[in-house]
């Protein structure tokens, strides 16, 4: 990642934003593949898509991770809440429980 202070103009800044967005999309795609694998494992073990204690843990982790790197924890929790709910719906569909 490029230090934002080193960016000299809007063209460089926008290029860095676009590169960051591309990297975020790749990470989110990887996370979706992990969710698909979780659904496979849950199906084999008779587990539900929603495990409330894990949802709470993921949201707590999102807040802590955000705070540790200077991101607003409230924003992180909001984003991860949406991501977690999407993931649960994806797992439910894979488990045939939508």
Order of helices and strands: HHH
Global geometry:
elongated
Question: Could you report the average pLDDT, rounded to the nearest whole number?
Answer: 97
Strand content: under 5%
- Strand count, sense and closure of the main sheet? none
What is the end-to-end distance? 39 Å
Number of helices: 3
List segments where confidence is low: pLDDT < 50 over at least 5 consecutive residues.
Answer: none
Overall helicity: over 70%
- The total beta strand count reads 0
Radius of gyration: 17 Å
* Class based on secondary structure composition and strand pairing: mainly alpha
Describe it:
The chain is mainly alpha-helical and 98 residues long. It has helices at residues 10-45, 52-69, 73-94. Helix 2 (52-69) packs antiparallel against helix 3 (73-94). The radius of gyration is 17 Å and the shape is elongated. The N and C termini lie far apart (39 Å). The model has no long low-confidence stretch (mean pLDDT 97).
List key phrases describing it.
98 residues, mainly alpha
Question: Could you provide a short overview of the structure?
Answer:
This protein is an all-alpha fold and 98 residues long. It has helices at 10-45, 52-69, 73-94.
Secondary structure elements and their pairing?
Layout (H helix, E strand, L loop, with lengths): L9 H36 L6 H18 L3 H22 L4
């Amino acid at each position: 990642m490029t230090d934002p202070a080193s960016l000299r103009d809007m063209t460089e800044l926008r290029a860095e934003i676009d590169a960051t967005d591309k990297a975020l999309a790749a990470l989110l795609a990887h996370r979706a593949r992990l969710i698909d694998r979780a659904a496979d494992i849950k199906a084999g073990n008779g587990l539900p898509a929603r495990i409330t204690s894990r949802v709470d843990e993921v949201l707590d982790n999102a807040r802590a991770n955000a705070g540790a790197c200077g991101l607003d924890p409230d924003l992180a929790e909001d984003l991860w809440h949406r991501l977690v709910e999407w993931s649960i719906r994806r797992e439910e569909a894979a488990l045939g429980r939508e």
